[in-house]
Amino acid sequence: MITIQKNFLPKELHSHLFNLIKSADFAWYQTPPLTDDKIDVQFGHSLYFNHGKASDWFDEFIPLFNQIGISSFNRVKLNLNCREKEKRIVGGYHCDFTIDHKAPKHFKTSIYYFNDTNGETLVKEKGKIKKIPCVANSLVTFPNDYLHTGTTQTDEPFRYILNLNYYA
């Protein structure tokens, strides 16, 4: 089941984290696109990967993790998409975490949105595609085995999200 929680964090915490990831001190790294579309550029910053902290900024996000109720992490990664002026790009449908090409059902995927854009998250649930709007300070959660993808935005210069894969 897909759940959406609006106004997920207190405004002060949301603003603190958003200002942090927009600051000149926060490093972003180009990541490979999910499609063969050469203009699909995404930047990322891993906070947790391969059984451990992957960033010195991890501890800043602990209040957000506590609010979700995470008991065990698999991966936590920030994504930044640049505006596409001419067309929105739909990434490739995928599950974030698989073992032997199968997505463990006992894990969850959550996406936290830092800003409002017209870039959407598309999630396949029971054969239907659900469009999740990119609304600041919202958290969408669904089972790890649901196929999903993001779309780029055409209205704002950047789309900032936090992608979490975990066991609750």
Structural topology:
Blueprint: E1 3-5, H1 11-22, E2 29-31, E3 42-49, E4 52-53, H2 62-68, E5 72-82, E6 108-113, E7 117-125, E8 128-134, E9 138-143, E10 148-150, E11 158-167
Antiparallel strand pairs: 1-9, 2-3, 3-4, 3-5, 5-11, 6-9, 6-11, 7-8, 7-10
Question: Which key terms come to mind for this protein?
Answer:
168 residues, three-stranded antiparallel beta sheet, mainly beta, 2 helices
What does the model show?
This protein is mainly β. The chain has one domain: Jelly Rolls, CATH 2.60.120.620. The protein has two helices and eleven strands, in the order βαβββαβββββββ. Strands 1, 2, 3, 4, 5, 6, 9 and 11 form an eight-stranded antiparallel beta sheet that branches. Strands 8-7-10 form a three-stranded antiparallel beta sheet, with no helix packed on it. A hairpin with a 2-residue loop joins β3 and β4 (52-53). The longest helix is centred in the N-terminal third of the chain and has 12 residues, at 11-22. It is globular. The mean pLDDT is 92.
